[in-house]
Amino acid sequence: MRNLQLFSCGSYHLLRGIFAIDADTGDIWLISDSLKLFCYKELGKTCKEHVNLSLEANLESSNAVISLDYVLDLESVYFALRNGDIYKFSVESDELDNIGSVACGLECAVWSPDQEIIVLVSTEGKVVMLSKNCDPISESNLLTGEFGEASPIVLGWGKRETQFKGKAGKYVDLKDKDSQESVNILTSDDRKVRICWRGDGQFFAISFVNISKGLREIKIFTRECVLHATSESVAGIGQSLSWKPSANLITTNRTSHRQEIVFFEKNGLRYGEFSLPCHVTEYFVREVEWNSNSTILLVLLEPLISDTKTLVQLWTCNNAHWYLKQEICFPSVSSPTLIRWNTIQPNTLHILTQSGSYLTYELRTVVTQSNEYDNWIAVIDGCRVLLSPFRDLTVPPPMSSCSVELSRPVIEVIFGREEYKDRILCLLSNYTIIELKHSKSDGNINNSEFLDKTGFYSLSKPFHFRDNTTDISYHTIRHIQWITVYLLLALSYSSDAKEHKIELYNILSEEREIVLVSVVTTIKPILTLISCSDSLAVEFIDGEVNRVSCTNETLSLQPWVNLLYPSHRISIARFSGEEHILGFTVNGRLFLDTIELCSNATSYYLHSHFLLITTSSHYLHSINLSTPIYELPAILPTQSHTTNDAVRRVERGAEIITAVSNDSKVVLQMPRGNLEAIHPRALILTIIAKLLDNREYSVAFAILRRQRINMNLFHDYNPEIFISSIHDFITQVHQPQFLNIFITELSDQDICTTMYPNMKRHVTNINSENKVNSVCDIMVETCEKANNTNLYLLPILTALIKRSPSQLGEVLTRIKNIPVTSKTSQEDALKYISLLIDMKQLYKVALGTYDFDIMLLVAQNSNMDPKEYLPFMNNLKSLEENYRAYFIDCHLCKYESALVHILKCRGREEECIAFINKHELYSKALEQIPTGDGELIQRVSLAYGNWLCSKEKYPEAGLVFIQIGELALALKAYRKSDNYHRVLSLALQLNLPKDSFHKIVYELVSKLKSINEIMTTSQILCEYTQDYEDAIFLLIENNIFNEAYRLIYKYLRIDLLETHFKPKLTETAQNMLSMLIESRTIVEKYVSRLEIVLTNKLEEGQTYFEEGGDIRDHEFFSEQSSVTGQSQTNSISSKGSKSSSKSARGSRSRKKQERKKYRLKEGSAHEDIALLEEIRGVVVRVDQIQDDLNIILDLLIITNQRLLARDLQTNARATITYLASIIPKTWHKHRLITISLSLVHEDGIISSPNLCTGIINVLKGGDLFPAQTDVEISEPLIRSIKWEISYLLSS
Question: What is the value of pTM for the model shown?
Answer without folding.
Answer: 0.71
